[in-house]
Design a protein that fits this description.
By secondary structure, this protein is α/β, with parallel strands linked by helices. It contains 12 helices and 12 strands. A 7-stranded mixed β-sheet has the order 2-8-7-6-5-3-4, sandwiched between helices. Strands 9-10-12 form a 3-stranded antiparallel β-sheet, covered by helices on one side. It has a two-stranded parallel ribbon with strand order 1-11. Strand 5, helix 7 and strand 6 form a beta-alpha-beta unit. Helix 2 packs antiparallel against helix 9, helix 3 runs parallel beside helix 9 and helix 10 packs parallel to helix 12. The N and C termini lie far apart (about 65 Å). The structure holds pyridoxal-5'-phosphate.
């Protein structure tokens, strides 16, 4: 065995041993209040995480990266930027990293609000950035979804006015799981981006058949595409997301980060890079997700529970037929759902977990639905 490989194995071995020690002792030591998610704790069907991840290749890469954490990871940052950009025919100047895409959504909102005005957004949608936008001086113009819970693109277009600084589209949409056909979305982007910056959030795009719009940023300064490693890549806890944009737009956004691209740890960079290589993990997740989702939808149908066909790893359903608070009732049964998102119809959302978790969820649902 050559020296490099031996050293690498030695380091990886130490790092893996370190990880085991971390999980066994650091979490348990009285000086730290890190919490391990206890076995037998609630089944988490609340935050659209990947129940199967991180991928084995990402775990290995994280373990190996621990020992290098005394150094700033710039070389690896650049490698990851290249790797993210390449599939869309883009370059590393078209990418900016953040500690999760939430940070990036807030950053884009902050950038858009340098000129006061408004932001156009569907409602309901993923709204974590609304607060930051409002604080920075943007009024949110909320455009209701269509009756079948899709973005109402014509209504969104006609809501844009001279004060509009930002237009947000989440595709597929959280919480409804609906998708916009590529042709419709493309022509919306063309029109809307003539008026203001379009922020397209593709957090769940890998779960569906429709393509990413990221390549369009090469020629459109008024489009940014925000993506995350938190969902299909199974790295929600690693906190890494990014935005793709025209080089000039990325330059502007980067100037709002105190240290551009520096918010992501060496360990998370390694995880993200390995995740992009682990194609089997992604297809395996998609296969398992589709089966667990199909099972859940079958039971919704059996119980006559209205739900929206989902292109993601969560399902939007109406709890109107249930007397009481469905999520409180699920909680009593050790299942963490979310909240009532729309009062009219008492629509709520459930994340698609593993088949076992969804069997538990549907068993409970059958018992409590009344
Ligand atoms: N965008 C959408 C549509 C989401 O649903 C989420 C998380 O639930 C995020 C962005 C933020 O994810 P993160 O900050 O973990 O990248």
């Amino acid at each position: 065995m050559d020296t490099n490989r031996r050293n690498w194995l030695k380091q990886t071995g130490f790092a893996l041993a370190g990880l085991t020690l971390l999980s066994d002792s650091l979490y348990a030591s009285p000086g730290h209040d890190f919490k391990r998610i206890p076995a037998g704790g609630p089944i988490r069907l609340s935050s659209n995480e990947n129940p199967y991840g991180p991928s084995p290749m990402a775990c290995k890469a994280m373990a190996a990266a621990i020992a290098g954490s005394n150094r700033y990871p710039w070389a690896n940052t650049n490698l990851l930027l290249d790797k993210i950009a390449a599939p869309y025919g883009l370059k590393n100047e078209n990418v900016l990293l953040g500690a999760g895409s939430s940070e990036i959504l807030g950053l884009v909102a902050q950038y858009a609000s340098l000129q006061k005005g408004n932001a156009v957004s569907a409602d309901p949608t993923f709204r974590s950035w609304w607060n930051a936008a409002e604080k920075c001086g943007l009024d949110i113009i909320k455009v209701p979804l269509t009756a079948d819970k899709k973005h109402d693109l014509p209504a969104m277009l006609s809501s844009i006015n001279a004060q509009t600084r930002l237009i947000y589209v989440c595709n597929p949409n959280n919480p409804t799981g609906t998708i916009l056909p590529a042709t419709e979305l493309k022509s919306f982007i063309t029109e809307a981006s003539k008026k203001a910056l379009v922020m397209l959030d593709e957090a769940y795009i890998e779960f569906c058949e429709e393509p990413s719009m990221a390549a369009l940023v090469a020629t459109n300064k008024n489009l940014v595409v925000v993506k995350t490693f938190s969902k299909i890549y199974g790295l929600a806890g690693a906190r890494i997301g990014y935005v793709l944009g025209h080089a000039d737009t990325i330059d502007q956004l980067a100037s709002l980060q105190p240290w551009a691209n520096a918010g992501v740890s060496a360990v998370s960079l390694a995880a993200a890079s390995a995740s992009l290589d682990d194609k089997d993990f992604i297809s395996d997740t998609n296969i398992k997700n589709a089966a667990a989702k199909a099972h859940t939808c079958r039971v919704f149908k059996e119980l006559n529970i209205p739900f929206i066909p989902s292109h993601t790893n969560f399902i939007y359903y109406s709890s109107q037929g249930f007397t009481g608070d469905i999520n409180a009732e699920l909680k009593k049964n050790n299942i963490e759902g979310t909240r009532i998102i729309e009062e009219a119809g008492r629509w709520t959302r459930i994340t698609v977990g593993t088949m076992d978790e969804m069997k538990k969820f549907t068993e409970v649902l059958k018992q409590i639905w009344k």
